Every structure is written in structure tokens, then in C-alpha cells.
Amino acid sequence: MANAAVSALTPDQTSQVDRIMSGELGIETRQLMELAGQAVAVWARAQLLGGDARGKRVLVLAGSGGNGGDGMVAARRLHAWGARPAIWLSHEASGLHVRGHHPVAAVAANNHAAPMAAARSAGS
User: Fold this and answer.
1) Superfamily of domain 12-118
2) Is residue 39 classed exposed, middle or buried when 0-12, 13-18 and 19+ CB atoms within 10 A define those classes?
3) Model confidence pLDDT, tens digit, residues 11-24
4) Which residues contact residue 113 at a Cβ distance below 8 angstroms, ignoring those fewer than 6 apart?
5) Smaller CB count within 10 Å for the chain: N or C?
6) Minimal CA–CA distance to 101: which of 62, 65, 61, 76?
7) Could you tell me the residue ranges of all domains in the chain?
8) 94 pLDDT tier (thresholds 50, 70, 90)
9) pLDDT digit string (tens) for 62-91?
10) How far apart are CA 82 and CA 54, in angstroms?
């Protein structure tokens, strides 16, 4: 199964799934972000960290959209498992919002914050 193909959704299909999850099923965006971030953290621990996150340094590159929020949740989860994550943001933290939610809150929840740094332009 190591080489099994994985189906992927287009951005439009993903947006449609998000609308169904929140509109029809009543699942909050924050819950979706938590679940996606947890899945990323579980995969990273198993596939990239040898099954044990303790003491391992992890760099999460996070953009301003939903995937960035998922990455921040993953960093928080990995930190809770003993990893030493750092998050590099593509934008200033104050400007990050995912469908009305602030993903930085996803990192800070449960007091498992990881160090964050915003990217700087070449002229900064």
C-alpha cells in the first residue's frame, strides 16, 4: 500500500465540502481545522519523525489560508507530543484569518503555543 494512489480534491471541490460540512452538517470551521491539523500531525509523527516526536525540531511553513491554520494546529499537536516546533508565517499574524477565524488562536489553544515568526520582504 506504500505506493497507493491518493485521490485529491480541487480547490472548488474542497470549498464545496466545507460548505456542506458547515451549512448542512453544522460542523464549525474551527472543528474542521482541528481535525485536519490533527491528521497532519499524526502523519508527520509517523512518516517523518519515526513515530516519536519527543525532542525533534519541526518547522511549519504556514500561509494565510486554511492550510496555514491546519499547519498551526499540527504544530500545536506536535508540541504536545514533545516536539520543538517553530512556525514561519507568510504574513503578519494579526492579518491571518480563515473564513472568519483567526488560526493563531488554534496554536495558542490549550497553552501549547509554538514560536512564530512572520516572513519579511527582501527590503525589510
Assistant:
1) YjeF N-terminal domain (3.40.50.10260)
2) middle
3) 888 888 888 988 89
4) 76, 79, 107
5) N
6) 65
7) 12-118
8) low
9) 877 777 888 888 998 999 999 999 888 887
10) 4
Task: Round to the nearest angstrom and report the end-to-end CA distance of the chain.
Answer: 47
For residues 85 and 57, give the distance between their C-alpha atoms in angstroms, rounded to a whole number.
6
Task: Please classify residue 36 by burial: count the beta carbons closer than 10 Å to its beta carbon, then call 0-12 exposed, 13-18 middle and 19+ buried.
Answer: middle
Q: Are the C-beta atoms of residues 63 and 90 closer than 8 Å to each other?
A: yes
- Distance (Å, whole) CA 72 – CA 94: 14
Q: Which residue has the cell 500500500?
A: 1
Residues whose CB falls within 8 Å of the CB of residue 67, separated by 6 or more in sequence, listed in order: none
The amino acid at 36: A
